[in-house]
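hey so u asked for the seq, here:
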Amino acid sequence: MNFSELFKLSGLLGRFSPDGKCLASCVQHRLVVRDASTLQILHLYSCTDQIQYIEWSSDSQFILCAMYKRGIVQVWSLEQPDWHCKIDEGSAGLVASCWSPDGRHILNTTEFHLRITVWSLCTKSVSYIKYPKACQQGVAFTKDGRYMAVAERRDCKDFISIFVCRNWQLLRHFDTETQDLFGIEWAPNGCVLAAWDTCLEYKVLLYSLDGRLLSSYRAYEWPLGIKSIAWSPSSQFLAIGSFDEKVRILNHVTWKKITELEHPAVITSKKTIVYKEVEKSPTLGTERLSFPPTGALASSLFSTQSKYDICQVPVSLHYIKPVADKANPKVGVGMLAFSADNCFLATKNDNIPNAVWIWDIRKLKLAVVLEQLYTIQSFQWDPCQSRLAVCTGSSRVYLWSPAGCVVVKVPGEGDFQIVSLSWHSSGDSMLLLSKDHFCVCYLEREEVK
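ran it, structure tokens below
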């Protein structure tokens, strides 16, 4: 495993291009495009203000840069560096911006969610979608890019509109049986749309492409409800993470619950492997000590190393009792992710913040628990195989696969605190992001296999 040098970054804005050839990063108002393999600078663009969001077009030809404070979006072309586009929403303001799946239209959401404006880069035409709902996930595209679903709120009721992305014509418009619609997400096969209610009302609704209600699921009634949702890549399973510290998995045939995955503070099953991160300071012989110490010796004196130990069950995990009288309590399953091959599901229970739970979906059993020293910041599956990368706000990256676990420290002086990571589409490198810097981790060929 090799690491690049550290590069400056602002706003955690670093993204690999969809085709895997380029890497875009932002430093204040500057957009830097590098070659993903050599990290040589290919293009350098300057925006009118500090960049708050970036997104690649689906064909990796364009990059969108949003400056929400100014209500401006600037678009840059890699093929024609002299060409650029500037969209100014003016007094309407701007709170969100994204590409359409064809990479030739931009969808801007104005302040107060008054409308979504669809701008065409080819014809310079403009279309409007009224009444978008201000919710966590209010716009969703099918994976094939043919349809878009938009959550709407009008006359104190929730609706969903489905549009054809080719010409932005309305295909279906229907109301939803929700008190306060919180999010929508298409199944990867594009046949089913999941819609879920606010955390005050446990309800998941499943709609077909033509707006028919296929099924409705409610696990319980009064306590806080849904916290996270994830489709399996095969569209066979829908995993629902709840505030009651459980994950419920629905099947795609009957849309009934097939299992309930609990997250207890004590692991008792002998079939579960518990990897516990332990930290130790390096031991130095007195013959190596010198005064004043050399730079290498000083860094080794104050640096700590960590590794994984396999613990014997029962194992008690670090549990935080949630504060009941505050909004958004840190309790329940807040992170969910299926592996690319559908074999595993990774979860995080927010009141056991240092643990990642890995479930074997073939057996519907808990396979592995990774207990870290610090709070889990992010995890992501390798897009090509069953391998999970985890970061905890330290200078280490953690990798798990069915073969075992490994801890790797990013070399270099200074404190590089990794708070986010993302895989390259080939699975042979990772982008590691801290608050002010980023680096790329390259895996050896045998590690990739």
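The longest strand covers residues 147-154. The mean pLDDT is 93.
lmk if thats what u needed
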